[in-house]
Amino acid sequence: AFADRHKIAVALKIGVSKTAAGFRAHAWAEAGGMILDPDPLATAAFLPLSAPPKDLEFE
Fold first, then answer.
1. What stretch of H or E contains 23?
2. How are the residues of the chain apportioned to helix, strand and coil, as percentages rounded to the nearest 5?
3. At 35, which helix (H) or strand (E)?
4. 15, 25 in Cβ contact below 8 A?
5. Residue ranges in the chain assigned as alpha helix (H)
6. What are the distances in angstroms from CA 44 to CA 14, 18, 54, 57, 59?
7. Minimal CA–CA distance to 42: which of 18, 19, 9, 17?
């Protein structure tokens, strides 16, 4: 809501990392190239997926 009111483009990022048991996934938001996560370094262990499906929508 805040981003919409202030016309800030926010991108959803989804990343994965390989583990001994398979894989782990993490999602975070980015705005203006900055990671919007309480612990931005937590995303460092994850390789972002290349692109979400074009028809993926959130409300």
1. strand 22-31
2. 15, 40, 40
3. strand 34-36
4. yes
5. 2-5
6. 12, 13, 25, 26, 27
7. 17
Q: Residue 27: helix, strand or coil by DSSP?
A: strand
Instruction: For residue range 13-54, list pLDDT tens digits in order.
Output: 999 999 999 999 999 989 988 888 888 788 899 988 886 667
Sign of torsion, CA 31 32 35 38?
negative
Q: Interior CA angle at 12 toward 11 and 18, to 5°?
A: 135
Count other C-beta atoms under 10 Å from residue 29's C-beta: 13
Domains of the chain by residue range: 2-48
pTM check: above 0.85: no
